[in-house]
């Protein structure tokens, strides 16, 4: 008996906590898009970016990529500069899909990319991680798993961007196998895989095929994975990015093309210049995917913010960043492309700045009709840190945004004129039947917002949002449950990882794409 | 020499700090309004609120108010219930002004109320005050002055709501004289005066007349002051509020009518019910002003949020609050009325919650096309506290919002294709001529956002936004300068205050309006 008791207590303790949150829901944007550019401005940006592609072009590294451009009719210089004329851009844009479904291994977790649907993604990419228990440290595999678990736990998150953090304790050439395996086993939500080089992209696709129980051939028309590639602004596409994108497109998987355009550093110090450059570079990447495989699912990415012109430090959640998030949507819609944008912050602390910057970017992204909103939970320090506390606070903001996007129910029963008559002037509605029927689910319930009066709040320890977030991510992890996955597929994934590690360690990582046609 | 030196040093020290911020600017909303209600829903709310006014009516306290309603043709019951039929409401609404100017004593500080202009107002009304130096305490006159000075200092603030806080150390019946005097001398921005009873409203108008060098008669067509009145939801208008509004309207000064409609407490626990009640009550107050003086400047106020249905505690910055801010704008525009809304938070700390709640409400208010956005800087704890730190942080958010609302400059020069050619693929734009010409004023400059990298931020003391705000309000106060005012008028204001105090202490405060015709 004495050995069983502690176990039971521990279990009971875990079961007492239940994260109360809105269900996973498909959010559709019913607001008119915020359009900071008028028609003339939009056209000038469009035309100027086509001028850029025609006259200046983009430098491309990688012979296989240059071959694709050449074969499609682009002008390829000896210096690796690729120029696309208007006609060719137009031709490539004629085959894009305005929306597509990204299939999760659990069908209910699939997401629509485009079609006015809004998806919020977990932070991705930081080299460091922070929480209030273990402080700031280099990204590592244990924390990677924790982030995936948290992303699985919060219903506001419907996808993962490329690698939630860089697990710097794992070997560079094989860590993508470990992270994809974690994404496929600790979560049933869709994810973007790192596509640095074709080998990584192909591995991710093969692992998704295993998890989904499909062949690569069957998956060709069933996008299950995506990768985000960056253009190295200004005007440079390197082979690692090009090959990752080409491989994904060849496999019928999705590519998000995102120029990394910080105004004043990678672009002119103007919104006009940044948008032209972003647009030219994004279209260039989009064209590449369509040259590889017309109709391949592809997303227009925008990542335009400004730097602090005194120090060169990147800034996020600025008015410029918010406006660029809106303007990017105008451009993406012009080309009938789904739109990826972000909700970021540059703050060093999980404080008011972290929240207001994220909100500024988030509202810009939502009102700009972003379809994939990256980094929407947990991004800190301009992308150098993934934060558990900020992840929780951001999840609260996203639940709130979900509430804003839910359609309103307005009818005579909801209005309740009879209840008003019953209550009378100066009364209150707490006890009336109309309220009693509804009070349990009347309003969006917060996950960490604290609305106690000051006295009670003081008595409860005067915990600020950050302290409450520390408690919540710990409780959430304590009750986290791994989603179901057929044990055979799980086993197959593990052996795929083991075999590939052996092969990569022996022969190196494949770099060039295998262009399936 | 020894006596002069410290003084010189102190002066130099003060002069070294200059608050870098955008200039005072008139912000026009160029975005399409966010419209959560479709046409049918809007019409149902409109019709239901007219049903409410026709069938149930509003309880009114105060014989002079009942007289006005009776004379205008309303049905006035012995129980003080006033019912307005559709025709009468329509008739009253036919005389409202869609926009008007509220004149400041310094002409450049005048604001347009309506016409798609957005104005952000300082916190008003809290009984308590908080800052990180002196902590939480009851509202007092010294802190009142500090708030007015801070409001004067931040360019994002263009008006003051009714009393920045309640100066509880001053006598209740005469404190309005002291606060109006402070508003008129420590600031040159427009303000709302407390209109609790006609006497206070009349005093405020007379003091404005002195400060502006006008007679009351001349001021009749020059609104210089406003008051916000609340309907005591549900369905009750008390004499203090009614008389304040009637007096202001009679004088040609502006009235903001704001039902205080917390869903689940003062209204049914539904958005539909709250909006119907808000609309009925707001229109009721609007009608009163037009009955007193057709064409009197009046503003449609919305203040709908929800309570925590478990504790009854009010919540702000919730999705419901944000949506109500948008929906209120749809209703106000339907009646061609300027629209007042708010940006509030329920947080007990100046933390991430304070910021994200305020942003949620603020974006709702801005995208809902609010013209007067109350409590936009410094409001805490659901209105129980005015906070100096939050004021600074909110000012930063408002400057940012101002940046979002500024028109974009998009032309070939701004785009800078030549600069892109000059920099070339993979280069950077820091040193190029296009950047050098612009870098000083390229981007919105923050007042407290910190974009340093983590190492430098740690070296600088790892100060979070709140700590930086504490520093900034102190520095701001240290260099605050009283705006110019003709010494004779200043003197006249002081003697008006002294004389009125004597009279009020002797004869009491006038309660009923003097209806100038």
Could you walk me through the main structural features you see in this protein, from its secondary elements to its overall organization?
Two copies of one chain form a homodimer. The first copy, chain A, has about 525 residues and is of the alpha/beta class. Chain A has 19 helices and 22 strands. In chain A, strands 1, 7, 10, 11, 12, 14, 16, 19 and 20 form a nine-stranded mixed sheet that branches. In chain A, helix 6 (about 175-185) runs antiparallel to helix 19. The N and C termini of chain A lie far apart (about 65 Å). The interface between A and B is large, with 128 and 127 residues.
Map the helices and strands.
The structure is a homodimer of 517-residue chains.
Chain A: H1 4-16, E1 27-28, H2 39-56, E2 58-60, H3 63-72, E3 75-76, E4 81-83, H4 86-93, E5 99-102, E6 111-114, E7 117-122, E8 128-130, E9 137-138, H5 141-153, E10 157-160, H6 175-186, E11 190-191, H7 198-212, H8 216-219, E12 226-231, E13 236-237, H9 239-250, E14 254-259, E15 261-263, H10 271-292, E16 298-301, E17 304-307, E18 314-315, H11 319-334, E19 339-342, H12 352-367, E20 372-377, E21 379-380, E22 385-387, H13 388-405, H14 412-415, H15 417-423, H16 433-436, H17 454-459, H18 465-478, H19 487-507
Helix pairs in contact in A: 2-10, 4-10, 5-6, 6-7, 6-19, 7-9, 7-19, 9-10, 11-12, 12-13, 13-18
């Amino acid at each position: 008996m004495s050995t069983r008791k502690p176990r039971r207590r521990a279990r009971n303790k875990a079961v007492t906590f239940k994260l109360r949150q809105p269900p996973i829901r498909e959010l559709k944007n019913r607001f008119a898009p915020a359009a900071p550019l008028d028609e003339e401005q939009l056209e000038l940006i469009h035309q100027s970016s086509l001028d850029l592609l025609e006259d200046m072009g983009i430098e491309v590294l990688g012979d296989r990529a240059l071959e694709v451009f050449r074969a499609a009719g682009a002008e390829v210089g000896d210096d690796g500069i690729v120029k696309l004329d208007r006609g060719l851009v137009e031709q490539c844009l004629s085959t894009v899909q305005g929306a597509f479904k990204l299939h999760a291994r659990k069908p209910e977790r699939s997401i629509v990319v485009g079609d006015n649907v809004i998806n919020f993604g977990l932070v991705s990419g930081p080299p460091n991680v922070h929480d209030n228990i273990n402080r700031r440290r280099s990204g590592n595999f244990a924390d990677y798993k924790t982030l995936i678990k948290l992303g699985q736990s919060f219903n506001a998150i419907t996808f993962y961007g490329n690698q939630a953090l860089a697990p710097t304790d794992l070997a560079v050439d094989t860590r993508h196998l470990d992270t994809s395996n974690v994404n496929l086993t600790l979560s049933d939500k869709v994810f973007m895989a790192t596509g640095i080089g074709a080998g990584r992209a192909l591995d991710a696709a093969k692992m998704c095929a295993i998890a989904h129980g499909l062949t690569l051939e069957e998956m060709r028309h069933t996008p299950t994975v995506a990768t985000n590639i960056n253009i190295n602004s200004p005007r440079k596409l390197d082979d690692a990015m090009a090959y990752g994108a080409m491989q994904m497109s060849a496999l019928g998987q999705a590519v998000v093309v995102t120029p990394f355009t910080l105004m004043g550093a990678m672009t002119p110090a103007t919104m006009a210049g940044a948008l032209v450059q972003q647009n030219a570079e994004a279209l260039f990447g989009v064209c590449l995917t369509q040259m590889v495989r017309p109709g391949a699912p592809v997303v227009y990415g925008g990542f335009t913010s400004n730097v602090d012109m005194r120090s060169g430090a990147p800034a996020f959640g600025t008015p410029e960043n918010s406006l660029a998030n809106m303007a990017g949507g105008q451009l993406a819609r012009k080309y009938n492309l789904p739109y990826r944008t972000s909700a970021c912050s540059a703050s060093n602390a999980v404080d008011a700045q972290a929240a207001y910057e994220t909100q500024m970017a988030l509202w810009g992204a939502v009102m700009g009709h972003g379809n994939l909103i990256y980094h929407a939970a947990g991004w800190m320090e301009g992308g150098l840190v993934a934060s558990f506390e900020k992840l929780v606070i951001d999840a609260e903001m996203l639940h709130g945004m979900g509430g804003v996007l839910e359609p309103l129910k307005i009818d005579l029963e909801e209005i309740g004129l009879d209840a008003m008559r019953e209550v009378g002037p100066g009364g209150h509605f707490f006890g009336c039947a109309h309220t009693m029927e509804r009070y349990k689910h009347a309003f969006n319930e917060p996950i960490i917002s604290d609305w106690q009066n000051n006295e009670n709040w003081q008595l409860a320890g005067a915990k600020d949002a950050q302290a409450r977030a520390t408690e919540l991510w710990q409780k959430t992890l304590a009750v986290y449950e791994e989603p179901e996955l057929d044990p055979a597929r799980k086993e197959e994934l593990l052996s795929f990882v083991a075999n590939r590690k052996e092969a990569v360690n022996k022969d190196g990582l494949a770099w060039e794409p295998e262009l399936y046609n």
